[in-house]
Write a structure and sequence with these properties.
The chain is an alpha/beta fold. It has eleven helices and eight strands.
Length: 266
């Protein structure tokens, strides 16, 4: 299904019934289908929705992929589908988008779940990925050189440093990434450099927030988790020990239990 915002069609999948509604926002490079098994798990008890960020999956791109554009897209979906106030579960970049909606559109979001959100600024020792714009640019360029053959798979492999993750899962995610132009992935990643106000947005959060972080990957999960919870009043923190950036896909049952415990206390 689609909504249209400023002439751009945005895709979403919706099913189930029950409150609170759960809205899932994916990270850069993939699409809404990363949430398929989670939608199926929660749909018997909740109204659930997952979107394709613009420029990903079936959603059109339009103009530049700015933080404000993504924020306003999510706010439009929540409003037009009468989902507010929803519990929004955002992975990586999706968590940052949800954070901005919660602050800039009060009342649309009841609670937040952050999944491996790289919130720390570049000058922090907790920052994920490269620590300078130059290092980040080189990293992105290295992925783009053979994006449709090996680059996308290298990116996905970096999400799962733990043993035992099925190759079929990794290849499915790599196929999703290959369908997203390398330029789009680079533009999303570049927000890590050009978005200096993440810490301010964390400090302005006033909704219940659950912070879930993997501990075994380049995103420095332990440091990130502490960075976020130190700045979000009353937030909860849970580490997925030995898991990487894609822990919610490699350990779904543990992820479901953490979310259900959080929902029970709202």
């Amino acid at each position: 299904m689609f909504i249209s915002r400023d002439g751009v069609r945005l895709y979403y999948r919706e099913e189930g019934a029950g409150s609170p509604p759960l809205v899932f926002v994916h990270g850069g490079g993939v699409d809404h289908s990363t949430w398929d098994e989670h939608l199926e798990h929660f749909a018997p008890r909740h109204r659930v929705m997952a979107m394709d960020l613009r420029g990903h999956g079936q959603s059109e791109r339009g103009g530049p992929l700015t933080s404000d554009i993504f924020r306003d897209d999510l706010a439009a979906l929540l409003t037009e589908l009468n989902l507010a106030p929803a519990v929004v579960i955002g992975a990586s970049r999706g968590a940052g988008i949800a954070n901005r909606v919660a602050v800039d559109y009060p009342g649309l979001i009841q609670a937040l779940v952050f999944l491996d959100y790289g919130a720390a600024p570049r000058d922090s020792e907790s920052a994920p990925w490269a620590h300078t714009p130059e290092e980040t640019r080189k990293l992105l360029e290295s992925l783009a050189t053979d994006w449709e053959t090996n680059g996308a798979r290298r990116l996905v492999d970096s999400w799962f440093p733990e043993a035992g993750v099925p190759d079929a899962l990794k290849e499915r995610l790599a196929d999703l990434c290959r369908k997203t132009p390398a330029a789009v992935v680079a533009e999303i990643r570049w927000r890590d450099v050009e978005e200096p106000d993440r810490e301010a947005y964390l400090r302005r959060l006033s909704v219940p927030t659950l912070v879930l972080q993997g501990t075994s990957q380049s995103h420095q999960g332990r440091a990130q988790g502490q960075f976020i919870t130190d700045r979000v009043p009353g937030s909860r923190l849970k580490y997925f020990e030995g898991r990487g950036h894609g822990f919610f896909m490699s350990a779904p049952s543990e992820f479901w239990a953490a979310v259900e415990d959080f929902l029970a206390d709202l």
